[in-house]
Amino acid sequence: MKLPIYMDNHATTPVDPGVLQAMLPFFTETFGNAASRNHSYGWEAEQAVETGRKQVAKVINATAKEIIFTSGATESDNLAIKGVAAMYREKGNHIITAPTEHKAVLDTCKRLEKEGFKVTYLPVQKDGLIALDDLKAALTDKTILVSIMAANNEIGVLQPLREIGQLCHERGILFHTDAVQAYGKVPLDVQAMNIHLMSISAHKIYGPKGLGALYVRRKNPRVQLTPIIDGGGHERGMRSGTLNVPGIVGLGKAAELCLQEMPEESKRLAALRDRLKEGIMSQLDEVYVNGSMEHRLPNNLNLSFAYVEGESLLMGMKDVAVSSGSACTSATLEPSYVLKALGVGDDLAHTSIRFGLGRFNTQEEVDYVIRRVVESVNRLRELSPLYEMAKEGVDLKKVSWSKG
Amino acid sequence: MAYSEKVIDHYNNPRNVGSMPKEDPNVGTGMVGAPECGDVMKLQLKVNPETAVIEDAKFKTFGCGSAIASSSLATEWVKGRTVAEALRIKNTDIVQELSLPPVKIHCSVLAEDAIKAAIADWKKKAATQAAESSALPKA
């Protein structure tokens, strides 16, 4: 077993060796520009790109022509939301999203608000899911876009895409979903779910960093986007710039592998995840699961360890790579805004740890992580004045703290 | 975040972890910070009433590695000093000793506050006691 153990697969994943093999020839041998129409270098590159497009589309029951390649999902989110906003401004100026979205969606919406758009941030329930009645109530004649993520990057909860898509379809409103964490992990079908735009990232599915895609529906309805990058008119005019051929080959191969392995792999990951959860929770008291366990990615676990600050816990498990919702680990010094939106108090948000299992994790690693977590939490609770007070029966909520 | 070796050492081998009886008239308890801010320090000092020398110190901390290290260091530094000397410990001394980065300076501030709060608590107790003992003979 190699240390440190990588269990942060929501942040990024290693490139699968099969994906790397597929990419390599496109750096040195088949290095042509896919837009070169008059020699075989260009044709071969173009062919590789079209194969990649098909592979990416197949995972979500789309057609190859509906896939636009980008530099990553942050760009895809920006293009989808800003592109719709600019193109459909005449039709309306209202966008609906949720406070638990990725910053690429939230900050894009914030910018649009400055430009005169109205944005509704639907509340999420305790389990992290939006309520369909809230969405229904928020829709207006001016609503042009609903952007709700498929799976959350911190707590892994799966939003009811099919129901959201149905509502949007009935009202003639476009539906964008950031599917970065869900794509290739759980079944997604843009037809059955009435999805019009979907953001995809390569490096979350064992592909390379720096490559993403946006699904843009071509029929019923045909979605049009105003580009945010001007240039040579690549990608149906929606995203100019010479295509990253090796990256596209990698994303295509990664997508193909995920689709092949999904039925088996999702079961394997769910079993490992449940083993991790049981192993920890059977040995420690006052551990809380953040977000719905029922509607959740098979590879995600997010736990709050009451009375133990998250960063100190990470520090105690140097040989385990996971992440925390603690303020101390964020650039902003604020605890996780996702957990806050669920109504998790700041006190518990500071104690949260996200486990992201992946293709290369083994049961042996899970068992090791269980031991390290239990050891570290017990040690830090011995050090924690809050744990001591709680054991003495003090209600921590009623203590008047000096806020430093 | 990369930690200094001293922070890691205090985190791995915290000095003077524990609690002393709060009711003890010679023990001053300082509790600073708040759970929702991600830092709570409890610092306790046992003071010799004759000499005002801090004979023992204990801490418990909920917080990041730097917070744990700051309070652990604080207990080391106050032990053997008089109350007046302990009050002269500045958060900047802690920052320097532990090489804390700017985002962790608040941990050192909290440790200084904890020392001050513990001493204030002890002084309050001592004053009450003095008042009581001077009141006793008359009763």
Question: Which key features would you list for this structure?
Answer:
heterodimer, A: 404 residues, alpha/beta, Aspartate Aminotransferase, domain 1, Aspartate Aminotransferase, domain 2, 7-stranded mixed beta sheet, 4-stranded antiparallel beta sheet, 13 strands, 13% strand, globular, B: 139 residues, alpha+beta, Sufe protein. Chain: A, 3-stranded antiparallel beta sheet, 5 helices, 3 strands
Gist?
Chain A is α/β, with parallel strands linked by helices and 404 residues long. In chain A, 38% of the residues lie in helices and 13% in strands.
How would you portray this structure in words?
The complex is a heterodimer of chains A (404) and B (139). With 404 residues, chain A is of the alpha/beta class. Chain A has 2 domains: 139 residues, Aspartate Aminotransferase, domain 1, CATH 3.90.1150.10; 241 residues, 3-Layer(aba) Sandwich (Aspartate Aminotransferase, domain 2), CATH 3.40.640. Chain A has 13 helices and 13 strands. In chain A, helix 7 links the parallel strand 5 and strand 6. Chain B has 139 residues and is an alpha+beta fold. Chain B has one domain: Sufe protein. Chain: A (Alpha-Beta Complex). Chain B has a 3-stranded antiparallel beta sheet. In chain B, helix 1 crosses helix 2, helix 2 packs across helix 5 and helix 4 crosses helix 5.
Number of helices of chain A: 13
User: What is the total domain count of chain A?
Assistant: 2
Cα-to-Cα separation, first versus last residue of chain A: 43 Å
| CA-atom Rg of chain B in angstroms | 16 Å
Rg over C-alpha atoms of chain A, rounded to the nearest angstrom: 22 Å
**Order of strands in the sheet with most strands of chain B:** 1-2-3
Q: Count every helix of chain B, treating DSSP H or I runs of 4 or more residues as helices.
A: 5
So, the CATH homologous superfamily of the largest domain in chain A?
A: Type I PLP-dependent aspartate aminotransferase-like (Major domain)
Would you give the CATH topology of chain B?
A: Sufe protein. Chain: A
The appropriate CATH architecture of the largest domain in chain A is 3-Layer(aba) Sandwich
